[in-house]
Amino acid sequence: MPLQLLAAMAPIVFLLRKRVVIAAPLTLLTLAVATALVALAPDAASSQILSLQLTITPLGRLAIVALLVILAAIVLDVWLDEPAYNFFPTALGVGAVVVAVLLLTTPLATYSILLVGLLLPVGSFTFQIHRNRSVEAAIRHFAFVSLGGTIGLAALALAESLPRDQPQSTFVLLVVVLYVAFALKLAVIPFHTHAALLAAEAPATALALFFGVLTPMTVIAFAQILMQSALLPSIVQLTKVQDLLLGIGGLSAIGGALLATGATDLRRLVVCSVISDLGMALVGVGTFSGPGIVGGIAIALATGASATQQLLAAGTLERRADGGPPRAARAPMAAAVFVAGGIGLIGAPPVVAFPGRFYVELMAYSFATWLGAALVIATVLLLIAQLRVAFGLFSEGLPSWRPERRPVAGVVGGLIFAALLAGGIAPDAFLRPIAAFAEEFLRALRPL
């Protein structure tokens, strides 16, 4: 029902998109109803669409509710602070993809819909074409996602069609190809060049849509597809393949952090920080351990929320700067939530990202000292990058603590940070559904 609702409302909102006062509230209402339907659905509830099975799992419910709430926050910011009518049907389309990807049980179908979802924001990247010069960014994004999608589809199709008596090396190669396909879509280092261009040219709200909603969904989809495709038992004894997976994740973690320390603007800082966190999340999944998987997925979800908070604040600060450097004096609430969002991106306590980061770094050290040290160094570098920008924002002080007019990003970011704090204070409700998935993953990895 939530999937059908979102998919049916997207074309309706598209027809009404130029009437923002109708399209925006209708989009928010649809997202709210879909979120409630998923939250209230019983465990293991299932349905079929076009002969495809959809089943609600604890992780699926948690991730869908979290990502649809983040999506609603972005829609609210677009409506009240930076109207862009093409954004509303795109948001509903992305919401439908989130529900489908996280509930489908067929790997090939999940991957195909994921690919469509990652291409949907291309329209959003260009909805302010005269202001953002984002055509090249959209084309490059389309090319990278399409390339990753093509090789990933080929790997999954071969995995489903080949008989199980094939040599183990065949399935190991398919896992490596699938990993590279997801690395391309997630823009992890060394496949990050299109993300750098997006950070410079795409609107902040479009970046929030991609890095705040779609990339966390993609990390979870990677773990789900690995489990559902029956490829895991073929690689459990080949440590060299696992070293490759961990190496790419570690490289992205520390490389993204290094790029963040040299970032020259707010949006680039956030995007590079997300790339670093995604590398750490992939390390967690690549450890093929319970704590690592829990930590990796927790990092992905918390990073999406924190990145949304910072990107919306960055958009407000840039618009208030009137061509000059962003300063807190022009938008104190936006600056405050931007700094607070950095706490979430580096996984500092007491926000909910801290337990996930701790689990991943602990498991990384158990695999190799250099890997654990690389993740710790990446965290320190992200802290330095966030502090440098925070000092720059407040370098001129504040003439008064009076909030800016229309402090939409400040209010939305404050609510997101409050949710992250609440999750950090009582993390059980957040981590338990992820732990249930990790248990299933380990059973698929080592079947009896």
How is this structure best described in words?
- This protein has 448 residues and is mainly α.
- It has one domain (2-445).
- It has 19 helices and 2 strands.
- It has helices at 2-15, 20-40, 58-81, 87-103, 107-119, 121-125, 129-132, 135-161, 168-186, 193-201, 204-228, 239-261, 266-286, 290-321, 332-345, 353-367, 369-393, 408-425, 428-445, and strands at 46-49, 52-55.
- The protein has a two-stranded antiparallel sheet.
- A hairpin with a 2-residue loop joins strand 1 and strand 2.
- Helix 13 packs antiparallel against helix 17 (369-393).
- It is globular, with a radius of gyration of 21 Å.
Primary descriptors:
448 residues, mainly alpha, two-stranded antiparallel ribbon, 2% strand, globular
Name the helicity range: over 70%
Tally of separate helices: 19
SSE arrangement, N to C: HHEEHHHHHHHHHHHHHHHHH
β-strand percent reads under 5%
Widest β-sheet, arrangement of strands:
1-2
Please give a quick description of this structure.
The protein has 448 residues and is mainly alpha-helical. Helices cover 77% and strands 2% of the residues.
List strands and helices in order, with pairings.
Layout: H1 2-15, H2 20-40, E1 46-49, E2 52-55, H3 58-81, H4 87-103, H5 107-119, H6 121-125, H7 129-132, H8 135-161, H9 168-186, H10 193-201, H11 204-228, H12 239-261, H13 266-286, H14 290-321, H15 332-345, H16 353-367, H17 369-393, H18 408-425, H19 428-445
Antiparallel strand pairs: 1-2
